[in-house]
Amino acid sequence: MKRTITVAIAVLLSTTTYAQFQVSASGGYAIGSAGMKLGETQTSSGIENSYGSYGEGLNAQLRGTYFFNNRIGVDLSLGYLHGSDQTVSKVNFTGFEVDAIARARAFGAAASIVYKFDSNVYARLGALVKLGGKTEAVVYQKATFSQAEADAIGVPLGSYSETNYVEDYHGQFPLGFVAALGYEYPLNTHFSVFAEAEYYGISLKRKDSEITEFNTNVVLPDGTVAVRGLYSLDNLPAGTNKTTTYVDELPSDNTDSSKELAVKVPYSSFGINFGVIYKFKGASSDSKK
User: Fold this and answer.
1) Which terminus of the chain has a lower count of CB atoms within 10 Å, N or C?
2) Phi, psi at residue 57, to the nearest 5°?
3) Which Gene3D superfamilies does the annotation name (predicted)?
4) Residue 266 lies in a domain
């Protein structure tokens, strides 16, 4: 018993001797990894798949790290992803055009174990969760009226509709992992700068979506707007749902167009981050290692 207490006290004293708390702020850019099909490009000559990940884009992080000794610590980080535009649908036919992109706007958190190989090189490995945000789809559609449609609206043949809308997609609570390898360069006792390569492995299962902006104008052949707001968020076209729920099962006789089968979308990425560290207590000297 005395030996156990002695060992526990020794470990506690060792931890106290080397304990160090630090905070850091960083920014960087990530590219998609293991890109999945996100959409298609269609023309009169054929169809081409579009691949990518919503994890691509600019990111910023705030981290707090506590080292128990000169090697091992724990890390808690909060981050924001400002995702790059990803092609969902691009259509270019005579009389019909679509340009639809989607991008992530997401907040996340990660808890990791940190291991220092020496005073400069370190690695992180931990769990990653998405705290909030959305995948925002921005859609433009142009459709030339047939003679019957033009006559019904009272515009000349060659007139067309221009529709712009935004739809926000929300996902279920995901769990992924994060891994990073970094290099820290001390400037003085308290401040260091660092660079690191970071990998996020995470996918998001869709839960629901909501159209937040919608507008359709009628445009004459010369480009003059003849009718503004033919359709709006409060007056959606027939068959267009303001909200959609994503489920795992649908009956064979389903007639509810506001429900669709759920899909998983990729957020995985490889990134490079640069930042600054502030240490509340000076690191242990190399002589203590």
Assistant:
1) N
2) 145, -170
3) 2.40.160.20
4) yes
Tokens of 231: 């359709």
* Antiparallel, parallel or unpaired: β 175-186 and 121-144: antiparallel
pLDDT of 65 reads 96
Q: Which of 77, 117, 19 is nearest to 275 (CA)?
A: 77
Q: Which residues contact 206 (CB under 8 A, 6 or more apart)?
A: 169, 170, 171, 172, 246, 262, 263, 264, 265
Residue 119 located in a structural domain:
yes
Question: Smallest Cα–Cα separation from 41: which of 32, 31, 33, 51?
Answer: 51
Contacts of 46 (CB under 8 A, 6+ apart): none
* Measured distance CA(176)–CA(119) in Å, rounded: 29
Supply the range of the domain harboring residue 198: 21-279
Report helix, strand or coil for 157: coil
pLDDT of residue 287: 39
Question: Cα–Cα distances in Å, from 165 out to 17, 143, 212, 230, 240?
Answer: 59, 14, 8, 13, 12
Helices (H), 39-96: none
Rounded to two decimals, what is the model's pTM?
0.82
Residue 14 dihedral angles phi and psi, to the nearest 5°: -65, -45
Report mean pLDDT in 10-residue bins for the chain, 289 residues.
45 51 96 86 92 94 94 96 95 95 95 96 95 94 95 94 96 92 95 96 93 97 94 93 94 88 92 96 47
Total number of residues shown for the chain:
289
Residue 167: inside a domain, yes or no? Answer: yes
pLDDT at 285: 43
Domain count, the chain: 1
Q: Check which CATH number belongs to the domain holding 163 and give it.
A: 2.40.160.20
pLDDT at 253: 85
Q: Encoding tokens for residue 6?
A: 């002695």
Residues 273/26, Cβ–Cβ less than 8 Å: yes
Percent composition of the chain: helix, strand, coil (DSSP 3-state, to 5): 10, 65, 25
